[in-house]
Amino acid sequence: MLMRAICPRRRPGTASRGRRTRRPCAALALALPCALAAAQEAAAPQQGMSMAGLLGSYPMTREGSGSSWQPESTPMEGVHTMSGPWLGMVHGFIDAIYDDQGGPRGDTQTFSSSMLMLMARRELTDGAFGLRFMVSTDPLMGKRGYPLIFQSGESADGVTPLIDRQHPHDLIMEAALTYSHDFAPERSAFLYVGLPGEPALGPETFMHRLSAMDNPEAPLTHHWVDSTHITWGVVTAGYVFGGVKLEASGFNGREPDQNRYDIETRPLDSYAVRLTLNPDPRWSLQGSFGRLASPEQLEPQVSVRRTTLSGSYNAPVALWWQTTFAYGHNSPSEGPGTDAWLLESALKLAASHTVFARLERVGKDELFLPGDPLYGRVFIIEKLSVGYVYDFAHWQALELGVGGLISGYSFPAELNPSYGARPTSFMVFVRARL
Questions:
Q1: pLDDT one-digit tens code per residue, 213-251
Q2: Confidence (pTM)
Q3: Domain 2-433 falls in which CATH fold?
């Protein structure tokens, strides 16, 4: 049986009013409109039913990307299925974006980004078995990704680094199995195995964070905070005690290469540990540390020690309001250490109106190629983005919206010849999601 929209979130002490906050996924809704229409009717008596987590007996709304946690009060919806002992969920999005990055090193491009995620859970006698699978059509935008000034990381050709562009994600973003064993109420041990998967390093990745998912561009702080969300080989073991989770991962530290359709295998040469605390349904706090062996294919001799701290909070305002603060520090085996700070927030004012903002400060040392006088220098870049989304149509599980954002920057005057004195960037987009 297929059902729609379970896991509604409520503020403490209030009753559900039937308003739904949708997680992304449009592709399935567009492919199966008749099935979704039937699902809406079949699901009506089932609303309010919740799905338990893959890693413990708590509600699944506590679980984020990989084995990460988010505030348990985070709105979470999609299309849900029941088939015998199996419970499943699908969500995702597809965006059509016009991108205009300002300044001499900026560019314009029209492109599409997307994500489709499938999850399934089978209840066992003393635990649960789970499946997670996620794909993206991002490779279709080309190996160079999309323009994003001051962004850096990875390569489009395996020879030169991407600078002032955001790389696309791989076709397969996650293919993981989970197993959890309950020892007592609110106590469980779990195992997460992925090819690819996400190790226990950093907060929930940006495309899944409620505070970030309405913003179609990647953070400049991505490679300090959550760049390991696609790791080609990871094994994580952990223990849950109430609102506390301790976990450790062994994983392949190399970031994905420019071939976005293949499967990459290397030894599990890196490690990470993470402690997460959810003191109540509105908060999720984490601290993590990892050593990444040879993360960049263009600098295979360099390893990186990464430290991250983050906190996400859901305020009982309007329909929802989530804010995330994150800090990341990269200490490479060669070259200077650098820091990154992020503060982002999204507010759902009403069923059709969402505003969002992101403030970042990051030390960038990859903005120039070898031979340039500024090569290897660390420059402090500050960026502020603000945006708005209007969801203008709802059809069964499908939601259509239009939005835009504008970004401004602050940086040292030495960069003016390359980036201009006051560059301004903007994006406008149309999206479909569940």
A1: 999 999 999 999 999 999 999 999 999 999 999 999 999
A2: 0.88
A3: Porin (2.40.160)
